[in-house]
Structures are given as structure tokens and as C-alpha cells.
Design goal:
Number of strands: 7
Structural class: alpha+beta
Largest sheet: 5 strands, mixed
Strand content: 5-15%
Number of domains: 2
Mean pLDDT: 85
Number of helices: 15
Low-confidence stretches: 181-191
Oligomer: single chain
Strand order of the largest sheet: 2-3-1-6-7
Helix content: 55-70%
Amino acid sequence: MQTASPFHPLEQPHSGRLLLCASLAVFAAAMVGILLRPLGYLSVFWPANQIVLVLLLRYPRLMRPLGLAALFASFVLADLITGTSLWLSLGFTTANLCGAACGWLFLRKQSQRDLQMEGQYSALLVFFASGMASLASAAIGGPVSVWAFGLSLTQGLLMWWTGEWMNAMMLLPFLLALPSARTAVTAKERRSWALKFLPALAVVGLEITSYMVGNKVGSLVFSLPALLWCALSYRILTTAIITMVVFVTKVIVVSNIVGFIPANVLDVASLRLGITMLLLGPLSVAGAHAARTELLHRMRYQAHHDSLTDVLSRNGFVQASHTLLKRLTHEGNSAAVLMLDLDHFKRVNDNHGHASGDRLLRDVSQLLTASLRPQDVLGRIGGEEFAVVLPTISFEDATAIAERLCQTVRSGQFQTAQDAPLQATLSIGLAYRQALRPGDSLEALLREADLALYQAKAQGRDCAVWTVPS
């Protein structure tokens, strides 16, 4: 049975194209790992298993027999091309896929935010999931290593488990965070380029210092403060990339000094576990910071938006309109302010219930939003009352928009909470300024529009009335 993907909805490729692309990606990753393999031993850096895990999470169709067979064949082909014996390749590939499947079983039910490394405990979830997956992989890969390299069982298990876990913590956060790259520009991203790059430059400086110090134990953590600074300054994806690059470089450099071979098994295992634990620090901070930022964003949104209709609340509308009118006044531009009222709304609540009234308000709000320009400001300022600010607009266009809103609601197909047909109309009052002056406050324009609204109701409702433009 296909499991729903926890990632953002993506265009799902055709099955044949998906199998081909996934197989090529795994084959290429396996070739990279093989090229970094010390002569006659396991690879120092092995990205293929983590790519398989993320592919399984994003495209659960690959968990079917044909998908697993294609991934299996990609591993084996890379091994055979580079001279590994068939039986040894079959053992290693079984271990690799077993670990990826174990990680998939644990992570597939986690929330979307956690699988994009944006949850408060995302790094810990990945830490424990990758640890369990590495153990499952080592349960097969360890004995195979004993047979292939003449190790003791303890050495085989320890080398496989620590290597796999370290690789997972270096790569998985980056691969999982890829779908969460935002296009929105935040206030933090509008900082000057110099300030924006300071945390990354600090990482580079401390890393250079660590290599200048030489092969000292403490040099391994020189860049940790700068990585934590990155976690508090950048998006989770950027932090994951910087962290991955730093520690992949460390692993490759240290492997040439220490020698990731069976003779140094305890030193290598200790170093790998140390790097794995160090990776948890900046990734945990980045995830917690992303969760806090998202929470603050939701709180700000809720403080300025009406919970029923999702348009601006009275407070949000007033704040946004004050800012807009202040700018328009400074520029000497025009503006129109509309007061809108749903006619006989009380009858809807009395005759059909408050649930029907709430549904009508939501539906009308959606119609109004769709009918206005992107730069217009719409807010719900009372029970059935709305207000709109139309910036930089001619009097003719403003009155045309007001009449169009009346027509849109008049011809709208609304329903009660019981799905019975429901009719609605709108009365609108409009105040207009050809060139805003310092005395044209939002409150004054709303009062003027409100007087015009009363005239619209006196004329029989379902119409728009405006004052003489000034």
C-alpha cells in the first residue's frame, strides 16, 4: 500500500522516469563513495544510503518490489564496475537497503515540519532514527565486513555502525531540508551583505585556524561556536549545507591522517561518534530556532487577522491602512476608502442559524478578496461590516470597483450550513481623495464612507453611494 508523502506536494513523475532518475542518483552517489574508499576497505564518505532514504520518504512508490529492485541493482552495478566481487556486493547492498528501509519505517510517520528539519526536536528525531537505521545496517554489514576484511565481529560492527551514523548525520539534515527552502524575503534577509555573511566567514576563519593548529583533539570543535551562530542566523537548509561541508571536509582530511582502517578501529570509531554528536548541536539549535520563528509568525498572523474570515482584523486593518495612507499622503497620491455592510445579515442568523451566518461571512470574504487588486487592503471591522482602502486610484475606477463588488455579491451562489441556497447583497459607502492631505486620516475617511453607507441603506440597499470627490 502506498504511503502518503510527508513532504510538500510535488509533481509526481511517471513511474518509469522516477525509477530511472532514482537509480541514476543512487548509482552516482555510490560511485562517489567508492572513489573515497581506502584501498581494500570501506568508504570514508558514503552518501548513497541517505539519498535512498530521502527518495523513499519523498516517493513511497519506490518501496514497491520493482523500486527496491532498481535501487538494489544500482548499488550492485557500481560495485561490479569498480571491481568488487558479486557476493560481497550483494552483502553490502543488502545492508545498505536494510538500513534505509529501517530509517524509512521510523521517519515516514513524522510530521512534515520535522521532516524538513524545522521542528523543535527535528534534529533529535533524525539523530535517533539514523542511529537505529545504522544499527540495522550494521547487523548485516558488520558480519559481511568480517568476511571481506578479516576483522573481528566487534570491529566490523563498530566500524560499520559509527561510519553509517556519522554519514547520516552529515547528509540527512541537508537532504531533508531541501524542500523547505523559502522564496519569501524576511527582515533578517534584508540585512547588508556584510552582516549576512559574517557567521559563514566566522566558520571559514575558525576552520582555517583548526588546520593551522594541526592534528590536535581540540581543533575538531574550533568552528562549533560559529556553526551555532549560523544556526541562529540562517535558514535550516543553509545551516545544514554549511554543517555538512565543514564535517565532510574534516572527515576526509582526518581520514588521511588517522587512517580509517581496522588497525585504528577504536580511534576511528571514537572520532566518528564524536563528530556525530557534534553535528547534533548546530542542527538542534537551527531546528529549534526555525520552530520558534514559525510560532512567532503564526502569532503575528493571528493577532492581525480575523479567525473566521481570514482577512485582516479591525486592528490589523487599521495598522496596515495607517501605514499605507501615510505613504500616500507623503507622495500626494489618491485613495478611496469603502465601508461595506451585508444587508439583512441578522435575518440569516435568525432564520438559518449562526453557522449559516459564519459560512456566508467566509464566502463573501473570499469573493471580496478575489475581486480586489493585490495592493488593496481589506479588513473585517465589525460583525458583518468590512472596510477597504484602494490606493492610487482614479475616482471612476474606485466607483467601478464598488459597483462590481455589489454585483459580485448579488450574483454569488451562497449556501446555508445545511447546503440550502442563500441570497446576499451588499451596501457600500465610498469616500475619495484625489490627493491626500495631512488632515485626511483613516478615521476621517471611514466616517465619511460610513455616512455614504447609511445613504446607500436609505436608498434601498444593494447599491454603492459615494461622496463628492475632493
